[in-house]
Amino acid sequence: MADNPVRRGWLGHLSRRSVLAGAVASAAFPAVAASTSAAPSSPSSAAVPGLRTARAAGTTQRVTIYAEALSGGRFGYGLAPGEATIPGPLLEIVEGDTLEITLVNTTSQRLSIHPHGVDYDVFSDGSPFNASFNEPGETRTYVWRSKERTSAGGRGWLPGTAGYWHYHDHALGGDHGTQGLQKGLYGGLIVRRKGDLLPDKTFVVVFNDMTINNLMAPMTPMFDAVLGERVEWLCIGHGSMEHTFHLHAHRWADNRTGYLDGPNDLTQAVDNKDLNPGSSFGFQVIAGDGVGAGAWMYHCHVQFHSDGGMAGVFLVRNEDGSIPDHAQEAIERFHGGHGGHQGHAG
User: Which is deepest, 158, 228, 298, 316, by most CB within 10 Å?
Assistant: First the structure.
């Protein structure tokens, strides 16, 4: 049977060598696929030789998340006491899976966890509107469900839940969780479709008012990959300001996954996309494809935002893992040029 470009994900003419296998990872924290009630949902390489793809298992995945107070008036989510981060842990399931999150509120504030893109009942809404939140010191379980595309009985098709989504507090400081968002209570959520290509690394970038992951240059995250790795970006917008996300020297298809369905797919290629409050998108690229190793910028393309510290570095190392001299020099220039910016939202 001929290879199916829809399942492979069409990225143009790439050698097998340029598509590397490896564990899904994040720049700062692991992707969570917690304990399950059935066989674990794991990648399958049978469908696409040499590439890892997502496999639907219809399992219930369980994870415990701790909401904690951090220094500087910030808050974060973590997988264990004392491990809270901003953003919180990256949560990942495949369409058909259910995610049960036990949220432990270790703080003195009312807070919650609210998802985008998945199904949940009113008791797992995470909003005070539905009396769905954690009081100080309270433990509560939230259930999120995912599903595949379904027919509406001759009236078209209903979308599934596959996509690049996010979660966040909806109760700290008010009924909409505005203070929780300002102070760092948010994280990434990915729902994959069966057959989706799996990346070597996933980076989560949150434009939150005038910060990136509640930091400003030169303290913004430096994301790190090796030339030829398949790198996934999950971009999220929070706060009250409009932004655009731009990645230097790399482009992606403006669709759900970032790669084309085949050589005849005419989806527009982009390297800059709006990233406004509450929105999110994601894409995959091959690190350094066609441009080589180096230090590449990512930033908001609203000019006074980038000037004000909304910029970071995507480091593409040589194939042997070393850093090119010109990349090291660029990183040093970046830190020198943004020496006056630091801090966090709120």
Answer: 316
Domain containing 263 equals 199-346
Q: Model's pTM, two decimal places?
A: 0.85
Residue 59 carries which DSSP code?
P
Return the structure tokens found at 36. 């399950």
Q: How many domains does the chain have?
A: 2
Q: Is 307 left (phi over 0), alpha (psi -120 to 50) or beta?
A: alpha
What is the longest distance spanned by two Cα atoms in the chain?
A: 61
Select from 267, 339, 284 the least CA-distant residue to 309: 339
* CA dihedral of 193, 253, 328, 20, whole degrees rounded to 10: 40
Q: Do 58 and 203 have their domain in common? A: no
DSSP letter assigned to residue 323: P
Q: Are 231 and 285 in contact (CB under 8 A)?
A: yes
Count how many residues are written for the chain.
Answer: 346
Tokens of 33: 């696929």
Residue with tokens 């340029």: 18
CB 217 within 8 A of CB 309: yes
Domain shared by 193 and 247, yes or no: no
pLDDT (tens digit per residue) in 70-107 = 999 999 999 999 999 999 999 999 999 999 999 999 99
pLDDT in tens, 121-154: 999 999 999 999 999 999 999 999 999 988 888 7
The answer to the question of residue 3 being in a domain is no
Pairing of strands 280-286, 230-238: antiparallel
| C-alpha torsion angle, residues 207, 212, 215, 218 (rounded to 10) | -150
Which of 173, 198, 223 marks a domain boundary? 198
Task: Please give, one letter per residue, the 3-state secondary structure of 225-287.
Answer: EECCCEEEEEEEEECCCCCEEEECCCCEECCCCCCECCCCCCCCEECEEECCCCCEEEEEEEC
Contact assessment for residue 323 and residue 296, using Cβ atoms and an 8 Å cutoff: no
Distance, C-alpha 256 to centroid of its chain: 13
Cβ(321)–Cβ(304) below 8 Å: no
* H or E segment and range at residue 180: helix 178-183
